[in-house]
């Protein structure tokens, strides 16, 4: 007799019958285990030899755990019995035929499990968030490709076109409301869904995840999303100078902050310092345009208090003594982020829109002590890796925890321009289909 036990992740299916060797009779049993975060299936197969003989199968036992979680959402693998190299604990002599059959059963089971898990994952519906100046049509390629294989895809239109320049403090509540409407009106979302977000849609989607206590996002895919904000630093300042502030003036009107008044020499810290001072002196600007919300200037003290968006969703905002609501909200946002099973963050050094491009994988510029040093120490600024940031080392909203669970993936891909994560880029010759097939699609199955 052979007993095999295995957990299947949420949503996985398992064949309830199997045609094995003719001298074996096998019976399946399936038990469901519901936890706070998922429903797991314990499948048991028990096989007995029909033709009893001198070499009849003895009852060895092997257990395999495929990422089950406990009630706290932590991985709790089943105890694995240490076995000899042949894959089974020997309690009595077995014939080579018996051992071979046992191995075949296990290999077949593993194949079934992984095939069914992949099938379950590939059935998850997708919700797409576009970037600034874009509309829901930016998700057309994803809609076309994924619906062709029978999946449900919704490209959101809660703030299209010029609306997408608005403050993220105003956009996020709209996004939350829209997501709730989408998932409430279609039962296909009941078992979870995937967020795909491009550019500015990246921080918006993450904010939605952190704000929605009732979200069922299983996987978050951020494509060139400025997750740690935007700051024109020394490594690509020439790109901004060559652009002659055209893009910046599209984001913020000259009546608020006149980028075009600055010459090339001012891009080496003076313009950035003045923009920070304007943000601090005009706190209402945080409720006007998104560019004020994503400005991640390198002086932490003022950034963490004067920026009302990014410090909050990075969970580095300061809670005053006795402000229990602030502390509660920080814990709530982290818990909501950690409902994710996987998070994939994509970036490319070829991105000339997000500065630094490492922001898409939670990098940022090094800190200075004073606002004045944004200008005087500008050329000394360097990019800090995610693992050296406060957000990671203090695990402020869950990056470190998610990584330890095996659910955090940072993808640095060469030669992908900013727009090519969603559409073809004729200027650079970047093909969206190639990027999708090679890098994005594998995270969707």
From TrEMBL:
Gene3D superfamilies per record: alpha/beta hydrolase
Signal sequence region: none
Name this polypeptide is given: Lysosomal thioesterase PPT2
Record's GO cellular component terms: lysosome
Domain of life: Eukaryota
GO MF term list: thiolester hydrolase activity
Native species: Phytophthora cactorum
Regions that span the bilayer: none
Keywords assigned: Hydrolase
């Amino acid at each position: 007799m052979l007993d095999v036990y295995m957990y299947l992740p949420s949503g996985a299916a398992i064949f309830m019958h199997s045609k094995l060797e003719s001298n074996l009779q096998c019976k399946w049993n399936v038990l469901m285990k519901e936890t706070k975060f998922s429903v797991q299936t314990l499948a048991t197969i028990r096989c007995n030899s029909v033709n009893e003989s001198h070499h009849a199968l003895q009852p060895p036992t092997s257990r395999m755990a495929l990422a089950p979680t406990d009630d706290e959402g932590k991985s709790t693998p089943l105890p694995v019995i240490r076995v000899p190299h042949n894959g089974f604990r020997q309690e009595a002599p077995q014939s080579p035929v018996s051992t071979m059959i046992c191995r075949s059963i296990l290999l077949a089971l593993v194949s079934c499990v992984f095939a069914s898990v992949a099938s379950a994952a590939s059935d998850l519906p997708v919700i797409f968030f576009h970037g600034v100046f874009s509309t829901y049509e930016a998700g057309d390629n994803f809609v076309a490709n994924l619906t062709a294989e029978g999946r449900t895809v919704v490209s959101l239109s809660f703030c299209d076109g010029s609306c997408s320049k608005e403050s993220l403090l105003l956009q996020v509540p709209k996004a939350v409301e829209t997501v709730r409407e989408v998932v409430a009106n279609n039962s296909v979302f009941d078992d979870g869904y995937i967020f795909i977000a491009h550019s500015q849609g990246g921080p918006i989607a993450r904010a939605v995840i952190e704000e929605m206590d009732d979200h069922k996002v299983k996987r978050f895919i951020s494509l060139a999303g400025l997750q740690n904000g935007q700051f024109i630093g020394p490594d690509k300042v020439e790109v901004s100078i060559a652009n002659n502030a055209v893009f910046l003036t599209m984001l913020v009107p000259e009546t608020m902050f006149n980028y075009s008044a600055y010459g090339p020499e001012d891009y080496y810290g003076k313009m950035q310092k003045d923009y920070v001072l304007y943000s601090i002196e005009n706190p209402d600007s945080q409720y006007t345009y998104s560019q004020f919300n994503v400005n991640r200037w390198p002086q932490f003290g003022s950034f963490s208090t004067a920026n009302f968006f990014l410090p909050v969703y990075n969970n580095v905002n300061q809670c005053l003594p006795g402000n229990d609501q602030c502390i509660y909200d920080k814990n709530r946002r982290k818990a909501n982020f950690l409902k994710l099973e996987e998070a994939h963050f994509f970036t490319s050094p070829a991105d000339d829109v997000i500065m630094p491009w490492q922001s898409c994988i939670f990098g940022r510029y090094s800190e200075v002590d004073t606002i004045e040093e944004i200008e005087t120490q500008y050329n000394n600024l360097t990019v800090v890796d995610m693992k050296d940031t406060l957000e990671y080392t203090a695990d402020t909203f869950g990056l470190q925890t998610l990584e330890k669970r095996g659910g955090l993936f940072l993808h640095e891909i060469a030669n992908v321009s900013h727009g090519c994560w969603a559409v073809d880029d004729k200027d650079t010759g970047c093909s969206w289909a190639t990027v999708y097939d090679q890098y994005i699609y594998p995270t969707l199955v």
